[in-house]
Specification:
mainly alpha, 14 helices, globular, disordered N terminus
C-alpha cells in the first residue's frame, strides 16, 4: 500500500503511529512534539462551526467558571491566573475580546434600532429644506386656522390645547430619551456632536468601525497607569496588563447588561448594575494589590481620571479620522 493510501486509512479509521504533521513517533492521542491530534477523521460541519465560534467568542464550559469569578469576586480571576491556576479559565485576552465584541455589537444594534441621539416622532411630518430656499423655509404644518374670537380664546383651557401641541410632545419624548440614556451613550454623543451635521452619519459609522480598536489600544496604557500608581508593589507590567484586561472585560459585560435591561424597564436593576460597575474596580484593586481603603480610593480616582481622559482622546481621534475619509 503506498503512502497516500496509508494516510487515507489513518485519516478515516485509526490513530497514527507517526505524527502526520511533524513525523515524530507517538503513542497517545496527541503528539508530544507539536501537540496535534493523532486520531484523525474528516471534519464535520459541526466541528467547523465550533472551531469558528470558539476562535472568536469563548462559548465553552470554561466561560461559565470565568464569568462566575469575574462577576462575583472582583480581582479573584486575576489572582487565580497569577497563582498558576490557568487551565480551568479562559485566557485573559479572549475574555476581553469576547465581552468587548458582544458589547459593541449590542450597542450598535440597540443604537440603530432605537435611534440613539435622534428623536423619532410618529405623526409629525419632517421636511428637510435648503436653508437658502426661503419659499420652503416654513415647517410642514396644517393650514393656518382663522383667528378665534376673544370669547373662544378665553374659554379655551390650557390643558386641552397643550395635549395636542406637537412641540410639547417633542419635548416630552426628548426628556424621556435623555433619561433612558446611559453615561456611555451620552459620552459617545458628545464626541459625535463635536463634528458638523454633515459629517454626523460618517462620525457614527466611524465610531462603530474604529472605537473598538481605540479602546483596545488603551489597555497597555491602562496597565502603565497601574504600574505607576503601584510602584514598589513588586508586580511586573504583564500582571498589570492582565488585571487591566479582566477589569475592562467586566466593564463591557456590565454595560451590555445595562443596555439589555433598558427595554424591559426593570425597576432599580439598571441602578444596581451601575453601582456594581462603579465599586467593582476599587474592590478588585484592593484584593489584588492590597493597601488601605483610603489609599485605594485615591489611586482609583487618579486611574479613572487618566483613563477616561486618554479614552476620550483616543475615541475622538478615531471618530474624526474615520469621518474625514
Amino acid at each position: 500500500m503506498n503512502s497516500e493510501a496509508a494516510s487515507e486509512v489513518v485519516l478515516h479509521h485509526h490513530a497514527a503511529s507517526d505524527c502526520p504533521n511533524c513525523g515524530a513517533a507517538v503513542s497517545g492521542n496527541f503528539c508530544h512534539q507539536c501537540g496535534q491530534e493523532t486520531v484523525l477523521h474528516p471534519p464535520s460541519t459541526r466541528e467547523f462551526l465550533h472551531e469558528f465560534i470558539g476562535h472568536y467568542v469563548a462559548l465553552e464550559g470554561k466561560l461559565w467558571k470565568t464569568m462566575k469569578l469575574l462577576l462575583l469576586k472582583p480581582g479573584q480571576l486575576s489572582l487565580e491566573y497569577m497563582q498558576g491556576r490557568r487551565v480551568r479559565y479562559i485566557q485573559p485576552l479572549r475574555v476581553y475580546l469576547t465581552f468587548s465584541l458582544i458589547f459593541f455589537a449590542m450597542f450598535k444594534f440597540m443604537g440603530e434600532d432605537h435611534h440613539v441621539g435622534d428623536v423619532k416622532l410618529e405623526g409629525v411630518p419632517v421636511i428637510q429644506v435648503d436653508p437658502g430656499d426661503k419659499k420652503h423655509a416654513a415647517p410642514a404644518t396644517a393650514p393656518e386656522a382663522p383667528p378665534a374670537k376673544p370669547e373662544a380664546q378665553a374659554s379655551a383651557k390650557p390643558d386641552e390645547n397643550e395635549g395636542d401641541d406637537p412641540h410639547a410632545k417633542t419635548a416630552t419624548l426628548q426628556k424621556d430619551e435623555e433619561d433612558d440614556k446611559s453615561g456611555f451613550e451620552s459620552f459617545i454623543e458628545s464626541i459625535v456632536s463635536s463634528t458638523s451635521e454633515d459629517n454626523g452619519a460618517k462620525a457614527k459609522k466611524a465610531f462603530y468601525s474604529y472605537a473598538p480598536y481605540a479602546v483596545f489600544a488603551m489597555m497597555p496604557l491602562f496597565a502603565l497607569f497601574l504600574k505607576i500608581l503601584y510602584l514598589g508593589s513588586g508586580k511586573r507590567y504583564g500582571e498589570h496588563l492582565l488585571f487591566a484586561l479582566h477589569t475592562n472585560a467586566f466593564a463591557f459585560l456590565m454595560l451590555t447588561l445595562i443596555i439589555l435591561q433598558k427595554p424591559l424597564r426593570l425597576p432599580y436593576v439598571g441602578n444596581l448594575l451601575g453601582l456594581w460597575l462603579v465599586f467593582y474596580l476599587p474592590t478588585a484593586m484592593r484584593r489584588v494589590y492590597g493597601g488601605s481603603r483610603k489609599l485605594t480610593a485615591l489611586r482609583w480616582c487618579t486611574l479613572m481620571f487618566l483613563h477616561l481622559l486618554a479614552l476620550s482622546c483616543a475615541i475622538g481621534v478615531a471618530v474624526a479620522l474615520g469621518a474625514s475619509h
